[in-house]
Amino acid sequence: MNQLVTSQPRSVLSLCISWFWVMFATALISCSGGGTSTYTVGGTVSGLTGGSLVLKNNGGDALTIAANSTSFAFATTQTSGAGYAVAVGSQPNGLTCSVSNGSGTIANSSIANVTVVCQSQYVYVPNLGSQPVFTVSMFTISPTTGVLTALNPATITDTDFHTPIAIAVNPAGTFAYVVNYFQHTVLMFAIDSSTGVLTALSPAAVRTDPSNDAANGNSVSIAINPAGTFAYVVNHYTNKIAMFAINTSTGILSPLSTPSVPSGNDPRWISINPAGTFAYVTNYADNTLTIYSIGNDGILTAVNTISAFSGPTQITIHPSGNCAYVTNSTANSISILNLQNNTVIGTVLTGNSPTQIAINPDGTNAYVVNTNSNTISMYSLGSDGSLIPLSTATIATGATPVSIGINPSGAYAYVSNSGDNTVSMYSINSSTGILSALGTPVATGTTPFFMAIK
Fold first, then answer.
1. Is beta strand 122-127 parallel, antiparallel or unpaired with respect to 135-141?
2. Which CATH architecture has domain 38-118?
3. Hey, which bits of 360-451 come out as E strands?
4. How far is it, in rounded angstroms, from Cα 11 to Cα 337?
């Protein structure tokens, strides 16, 4: 005999009614915006007069900003409580952009106060032989063509100038330091953020070898650590490295408690690794490289000497900090140094009397000025640090080139020609790395030497 089941239909009906109300409530929440809110990260841009700028948020989410833009916002939104960190991914050609207010935590509203400021790039060239009035030539880089245009004024002079041979700019781009070859002094300048013109600080100069009152210190080069807190000057006559603290507010140099340390015989160049933990000095006369550790107080301590070179004039460190490259001016070659174990892992031939080597910011190409060949040798860089000649291996310079620099975006290269008092200009092919000359070289003072690019 069949029995009637009366509870089951009520249960099914109850479930159906419950399902209906759940779906109805979900629809109401969706329509009213009651889901998780997300917010944009953005801000303002100024000075982007040419090229394009790439910004990144939290190391990714790349955003390309076109020339003449005044604002930006990343496409990817974030929830409240999420962190953001905006940084420059790649610079526009001929401009240097910086980010302020770039990091923080989102708190229930979009971020619109990240500030990006782009400024012109400048080239500074000390003129070693501009007697009786010694000068530094100053240029701005066109962000669209890479061509140099003289500033107004085109040069600066100073009563303390005496055979200026080298110049360095601090990482913040606010101060410049000019080394006087015969006077063993460093002149200190502020850089005008709007015009790029150098203005002498007060006091204007500091001695690089206070114990030597006769003007024969022969200071030849200068390096500033990545933090911009210490400066080191090579004195090749006295075989010393002078050490200074940098006041980051005023730009003034002050000798450290230990003002100098000994080097090898006839030191020529000093470079500092990207971490700011080691310094490397080439010693021309004894064919060595001295390696120093850098203390928290900025003082150098010699930790190793490598004897594997031939008339070493300059050392350049790869942006990764893993390898370095030493110019052997009397052997017409470059030595490749593994900085993990401080061993020479290879040698590659150059033109005659290589003087200086520059590596592009991406670490993919290297360029060597050959002083007695009037050429630049061009290489690609292997993953192991090896130098591989490009399909077009060299390009002509002016007479007696001594220095080469690459602008921060890696789009342009510049060479000072001490024999004909000019700077040659080149564009860098982003795919091949090959240089192409940019018109007629620009004039400098007499005997232009080791340049700096801001």
1. antiparallel
2. Sandwich (2.60)
3. 365-370, 375-381, 387-396, 401-406, 412-417, 422-428, 435-437, 442-443
4. 81
Cβ pair 437, 414 in contact under 8 A: no
Residue type, 91: Q
* 149 C-beta neighbours (distance < 10 Å), count: 13
Q: What is the pTM of this model?
A: 0.86
- Cα–Cα distance for residue pair 258/312, rounded to 1 Å: 27
Alpha helices (H) along 111-262: none
* In CATH, 323-454 is 2.130.10.10: yes
Answer for the pair 393, 377: CB distance below 8 angstroms, yes or no: yes
Query: What is the token pair recorded at 47?
Result: 């000075």
Q: Rounded to whole angstroms, how far apart are CA atoms 100 and 43?
A: 10
Cα-only R_g, the chain: 29
Q: By the 8 A CB rule, do 449 and 127 touch?
A: yes
Residue-wise burial string across 301-336, b where 16 or more C-beta atoms lie within 10 A, e elsewhere? ebeeebeebbbbbbbbbbeebbbbbbbbbebbbbbb
Domain boundaries, the chain: 38-118, 158-307, 323-454
- How far is it, in rounded angstroms, from Cα 128 to Cα 444? 11
The answer to whether residues 306 and 318 touch, using CB atoms and an 8 Å cutoff, is: no
Task: Report the alpha-carbon distance of residue 118 to residue 105 in Å, rounded.
Answer: 25
Quickly state the pLDDT bin for 371 (edges 50, 70, 90).
Answer: very high
Give the chain's length: 454
Per-residue model confidence (pLDDT) at position 13: 43
